[in-house]
Amino acid sequence: MSSGDASSVELRLGLLLRQAQRRAAAVAATALASLGLSGRHFGVMLLLARDGISTQKQLLTDLGSDKAGMVRTVDELDRRGFIVRSQSPHDRRLYHLSLTETGRTAFDAARELADTAAQDIFAGLTPEERITLADLLSRVANPPPP
Question: What sections of 52-124 are H helices per DSSP?
Fold first, then answer.
């Protein structure tokens, strides 16, 4: 394979990643719509369910979101009673976010819908291929330091 072929493959991979992300987001959005949730909401709830507690700043970093979008998402989840904000005991400017019981219940329902959506998204892959894809994408998303 010539160097021109390699760059073509890399360019194609970038496009395929974007197309796969768009399809996955669309399938997930359709699945979550019945609960009045978006992918943004689900991402925040997923991280809070995983971590127990987080800050808006950490969620921004983990989700790669923009500040305005994150503020809107957190405000919407707060209005619905899905999250609670508590002031940090160490920094009065910082608020910790966590799921409420109502939020955990909503997340559990959303996770079931998301699991079904994921089955649709990855239907063309064997279980082994799914594991390989997860490993490869993890290495692309989190490269080792140089």
Answer: 56-63, 67-79, 101-121
Q: Over the Cα atoms of the chain, what is R_g?
A: 18
Taking the domains of the chain in order of start, what are their residue ranges? 3-141
Write the burial class of residue 28 (CB in 10 Å: 0-12 exposed, 13-18 middle, 19+ buried): buried
Question: Could you report the per-residue pLDDT of 69-86, keeping only the tens digit for each?
Answer: 999 999 999 999 999 999
Distance CA 82, CA 101 (A): 7
pTM (two decimals)? 0.84
Q: What is the pLDDT of residue 142?
A: 87
Question: How much is the pLDDT for 5?
Answer: 63
Min mean pLDDT across 35-44, 57-66, 123-132 is at 57-66
Name which of 91, 107, 121, 89 is nearest 24 in CA terms. Answer: 121
pLDDT at 6 (0 to 100): 58
d(CA 46, CA 92): 26
CATH no. for 3-141: 1.10.10.10
Tokens of 111: 């996770």
Parallel/antiparallel/unpaired status of strands 83-87 and 54-55: unpaired
